[in-house]
From TrEMBL:
InterPro entries listed in its UniProt record: DsrEFH-like, Sulphur_relay_TusB, Sulphur_relay_TusB/DsrH
Organism the protein comes from: Candidatus Sodalis endolongispinus
NCBIfam families linked to this entry: PRK13510.1, sulf_tusB_dsrH
Family: Belongs to the DsrH/TusB family.
Entry-linked SUPFAM superfamilies: DsrEFH-like
Keyword terms of this UniProt record: Cytoplasm, Transferase, tRNA processing
Quaternary assembly: Heterohexamer, formed by a dimer of trimers. The hexameric TusBCD complex contains 2 copies each of TusB, TusC and TusD. The TusBCD complex interacts with TusE.
Biological role: Part of a sulfur-relay system required for 2-thiolation of 5-methylaminomethyl-2-thiouridine (mnm(5)s(2)U) at tRNA wobble positions.
One GO MF term: transferase activity
Keyword Cytoplasm listed: yes
Identification of the protein by name: Protein TusB
Annotated localization: Cytoplasm
Lineage per the UniProt record: Bacteria, Pseudomonadati, Pseudomonadota, Gammaproteobacteria, Enterobacterales
Keyword set includes Zinc: no
Length: 95
């Protein structure tokens, strides 16, 4: 399963996402969801302790000026890599 988080971590139930996720699942942060990847944030710590494979969309991180503050636990990917994730994980759930 590919989970996509496009909303601020303060506007959604991240605990439920973590309870739903299974080993082998991927998480992609995009749009305002990239806020969840800020280094040292509660959301980044929770995701870092999970079994999810973590990704974040490079353009959305750069657009918000967060590149220097982003957690190293996330692979920063391009739109092309996003397409590859959708091929790898045909089932998706948007948060």
């Amino acid at each position: 399963m590919l989970y996509t988080l496009s909303r601020s971590p303060y506007a959604c139930d991240l605990a439920e996402l973590l309870r739903t996720a299974q080993p082998g699942d991927d998480l992609l942060l995009l749009a305002d969801g990239v806020i969840a990847g800020l280094n040292g944030s509660p959301a980044a710590r929770a995701f870092g302790a999970s079994h999810l494979t973590l990704h974040a969309l490079e353009n959305d991180i750069a657009a918000r000026g967060l590149s220097a503050h982003f957690s190293p636990n996330f692979a920063i990917i391009s739109y092309t890599d996003f397409v590859r994730l959708t091929e790898k994980q045909p089932q998706q759930m948007a948060w």
